[in-house]
Amino acid sequence: MKKTTPCKTTMKLFLISAIYLIVFFDCHSSLTVKIEERYPRVVTPLGSIEGYFKVSSNNKRIEAYEGIPYAKPPIGELRFRVARRLSPWSGVLKAKRFGLPCLQYTQFPMDPANKVEGSEDCLYMNIYAAGRCEHHFKATMDPAELLPVIVYIHGGAFQFGSPMSFKPTYLLNKDIILVTFNYRLGPLGFLSTEDATVPGNMGLKDQVIALHWIADNIESFGGDPEKITIAGHSSGGASVHYHYLTNLTSGLFNAGISLSGTALNCWAQTEGSLMKAKKLASIVGCPSRDVQDMVECLKTRPGYQIVQAVGEFMPWLFNPFSPFGPVVEKGGSDFTFIDRSPIDIIKSGEVQDVAWITGVTSEEGLYPAADFVTSEELLADLNENWESIAPHLLDFNYTAPKAQHANISKLVKQYYLGTKPIEVSTITEIVKLLTDRLFVADSIRAARLQARGNQTPVRFYYFTYRGVHSLSELMTGNTQNFGVSHADDVAYVFDAASELFNSSTTPEDRNIRNLLINLWVSYATKGFPNIGIEWPEVSKSSDRFFHLEIGGPKEISIKDGPAFGEEKFWQGLNLSENIETNHVKAKNSEL
Question: Quick one: signal sequence residues (predicted)?
């Protein structure tokens, strides 16, 4: 048979076509995807969006849409104000790369010489869809084909962070939709003048707008707007809990997961907001006598300069780690997030009656202890100056009268260390102290109180599994085993710190990952966490604290003894952050 040689142009077109046909398989590995369908595309009520394909760890194809704007950029006159919703667009929006993180003063900068990163133009969302495959080019989908949605809110003490570290590699082996997004942070997200000029909570209101966007548009991506679970870690977990306390997100979700953070945690409530706003104004050269003039001046300052000033509110290392965060709004507006304290709202029973899971790890206090546990010099400084550092490290600088700071500091140190000094040999005690104060005691209290007011289940878990690696290794720069760190649990779910958690893993690590992912996905899908054993609710009346302890893939048990976290000790200090508003002065005067 005589051979023919095609022209170069024809051969080039053939090769391009062949490459596209080889790369883009459908769910069943058949070559049915057309060349013009090599990128997934959806049509939303706002306009068309084009993404790209990723694969999960099991080589399952995922539709990825990254960098979708969900609100107008909060810049210029919109700084410190509620973000504006987007108008519909024409043409096709390309969503193939992350939007920049929100401008932030970060504890873990890419460049150690510069702690400020990101952009004010940052209100972007990322959507990952698994399981749709042959359905993803349909104009509409059958309701039975719609997938449950998990919306993940990143942590970072309300000061830093972004969703870029939380990858869908393992979670989207399951048939779900995952949504992540940026929201304003630090003073740009949480500055407040304690009146109608800047009521505050701009970052939480960004989340509200994002949740409305999801409810309005997620069906276009194959997601079920009637099955939305909001989840978060640390300040993201506290954010989730805050959405139970506001009317602005009523009906927008039907389950929640708060890991290592609730609205009752001491760092999740900001005091002295006006004083902080005036101090910030002074730092950047703005007048502070008249609040409106002050805010107008702050709008003219570069965002970088405003965020750089956050360091002035952290007198010892990165502490307190959340100087700008959620506030009780004053002055009234048509978009008030909360106007009463979280504990008042919870105790009144006026929370959204939606199922809730919350939990902690056993050594949460490695954040912030990782900054100093390996430094003899810093430990000596902490020991010598404990009475002046403790109010900032333990976040009671604004919730106890200044005259009582030294006494409270002494009581805390004596309770956890007795007469022992703060040094390398007492690291375990210091980590426990920080764990209880900053995370565990208030999380347990939040679960107890919410359970009493809710008809829907409230469940609590305690994660004690230490795998081959821990995030504390990244935070300390040391491979010593300090325990189960803050964020070790969520790292398994989201492939965070993959350089650690994907290297030298064990079957036990992989089984823990599967257990946690099954817990999340079954909860989002059926409203009940499937973990192989019955997981009782937190009691509505008893002092016994029923909770799930996860000590390993085969070490899952229900505990119902006295609560851990030294809850009674911390409540006995009568710090004002979790005392009903009408009793704050009386309680404080007793100390």
Answer: none
